[in-house]
Amino acid sequence: MRKSLLVILIILALTTSNVFGKAILDTGNLESGVIGVEYNNNSTKRMKVMIEKDENKYTYDMNNKKEDFSLQMGNGSYTINLLENTEGNKYKVVYQDTVVLSMKEENSAFLGSVQMIKWNSSMKAIKKAEELVKDAKSDEEKVEKVYQYIINNIEYDYDKISRLTSDYLPQVDSIFVDNKGICYDYASLFAAMLRSVGVPTKLVKGYAPDVKEYHAWNEVYIGSKGQWVTIDTTVDAQYNTANKKVDMVKDSSLYKKSNEY
């Protein structure tokens, strides 16, 4: 997957009220580590959401009037900024608010449906996940069953790379139905299917061994072991196609993480 173009956000103005009159933070799923951002705007200008905690920040394109985002940086105070494009790569803050996250379960933020891993129970992929794990007696079994399904049924889409835009987002059911995708798609589908059956799963971006370009993979929480493990379904699907055996769990020290969602 090609690395998204770096957007330099130049903050021109700061206000605490939305210039469009309405900006709403949906805190209904806050205890699960998810914040909803909704705005009422008929403008065609590009919008972004920037989420900050301590010295860390994540920036997202606002592709719809309402989007859900992960608060994946742990409990504490988060600043939510809504940004409006002014020209080129310049943005101004048009709304800002603060929320305090206090999750009872620290891994809850990696179970919900969010912008990059958008899923619901009516999706074919999610129904398949439920079917696959119905007899599973542990999280390890759930992970293994979903993993095997993906590496045996999803092919790498080499043609898709040339058509990607910088704001591309995976569509879980389209990937599932088409049976193909790029690394970002593999990681989103795997995360959605596992999250839907109660297994905390991260979508991770960065650099991986034997992969020249910016890459996406997953980290999955195995409750019985109390640890996160690294799984790369993109690479393993290609090894599987070549009839080469490979371990599902990777050496995490070989993967260089840039961001996690």
UniProtKB/TrEMBL annotation:
<feature type="domain" description="Transglutaminase-like">
    <location>
        <begin position="175"/>
        <end position="235"/>
    </location>
</feature>
<dbReference type="InterPro" id="IPR038765">
    <property type="entry name" value="Papain-like_cys_pep_sf"/>
</dbReference>
<feature type="signal peptide">
    <location>
        <begin position="1"/>
        <end position="21"/>
    </location>
</feature>
<keyword id="KW-0732">Signal</keyword>
<dbReference type="Pfam" id="PF01841">
    <property type="entry name" value="Transglut_core"/>
</dbReference>
<dbReference type="InterPro" id="IPR002931">
    <property type="entry name" value="Transglutaminase-like"/>
</dbReference>
<protein>
    <submittedName>
        <fullName>Transglutaminase-like superfamily protein</fullName>
    </submittedName>
</protein>
